[in-house]
Amino acid sequence: MPPKKLLLLLLIFVLCLGNLSCKRQPKSTAEVPIVLSHGYTISVAPFTQPTTPQELILGRIPEQQGVINANDLQMLDQEFKHILYSKKNRRYVFLESRLPLTSLNTHSAAQPQGLNYWVEYGRKHGADLLLVPQVLNWHEREGSRAGVTQSAWVRVEFFLLRIRTGQIMHRSIFEEKQEALTDNFLNIGSFLKRRGTWVTATDLAKDGMQKACKDLGI
Fold first, then answer.
1. Distance of alpha carbon 145 from alpha carbon 10, whole angstroms
2. Which of 157, 77, 163, 90 is nearest to 125 (CA)?
3. In 22-89, at which residue ranges do the beta strands (DSSP E only) sit?
4. What are the start-end ranges of the H helices in the chain?
5. Which of 15, 33, 72, 204 has the highest CB neighbour number within 10 Å of its CB?
6. Which of 121, 144, 146 is nearest to 132 (CA)?
7. CB–CB of 89/217 below 8 Å?
8. Domain 39-216 listed as CATH 3.40.50
C-alpha cells in the first residue's frame, strides 16, 4: 500500500476511534431492542428464499435478485442454530421440514401471501411463537479475502410470528454490500471488525443473525 494512502487510513482510524468508543443513543423507540420473556419457547423455521411476490410475508422482491443455493441455505440453518444455542435461558425448537414456498395457494401474483402460509406451518408444528428467517438477496464474493472483483452482498429478513393470533410480532432486516474503506469512510467500524478483509456472503448473513437476536429480543 502506498505510504500516503496508509497515512490517510491511519488518520481516519485515529479520528474515528473517539466516535466508536461513544455509545450511540437511539434516534427513536423503534431502535430500542425488544425484550421478550424467557418463558417463551421459540420455534425456528429453516431458512427459505422467496422468489415471487406472493411468497413474501412483507416487502418486495429485489431487482436482479441473487439466488442462494440449497447447500448455502443449509449452512445458514447451522450457523443460526449455533448463534441461538449460545443464548442463555431461552428454549428453541428447530423445525426441520423445509416445505417449498411454491405450495402457496395464490390468488394474486402481485401481493404477498406468505404470512398465512407460515401461520399454518406453525400450527402444524404446534408452535406458539415462530421465527421465520429468509434470504431476499444473495450475491457471493468473487475473489478472495485479499481482493475481489465483486464483493459479497446480502439481504436477510427475520419475522417473529404469534401463531395463535396469526400476527407479525416483530421484524428484523439486514442488508449490506461490503465496500472498501476508501469508497465509504463511514464503514470504519465494519472495516476494523473484519480486519480489512473481504468477507463472504455467509459472513454478512451471520451479522444479520446477530442483529436479529437484538432486534427481536431473542
1. 21
2. 163
3. 41-44
4. 3-21, 70-85, 114-124, 188-193, 201-216
5. 204
6. 121
7. no
8. yes
> Is the CB of residue 134 less than 8 Å from the CB of residue 50?
yes
Which grid cell is 76? 445458514
8 Å CB contact between 61 and 113: no
Radius of gyration of the chain, Cα coordinates, nearest whole angstrom? 19
- Calpha distance 77→79 (Å, rounded): 6
SS3 of residue 33 by DSSP:
coil
* Tens of each residue's pLDDT in the chain, 218 residues: 555 454 445 555 544 544 444 444 444 444 445 667 777 899 999 999 999 998 999 999 999 999 999 999 999 999 999 999 998 778 999 998 766 665 555 555 567 889 999 999 999 999 999 999 999 999 998 887 777 688 899 999 999 999 999 999 999 999 999 876 555 455 555 655 666 678 999 999 999 999 999 999 99
Phi, psi of 158 (to 5 degrees): -135, 130
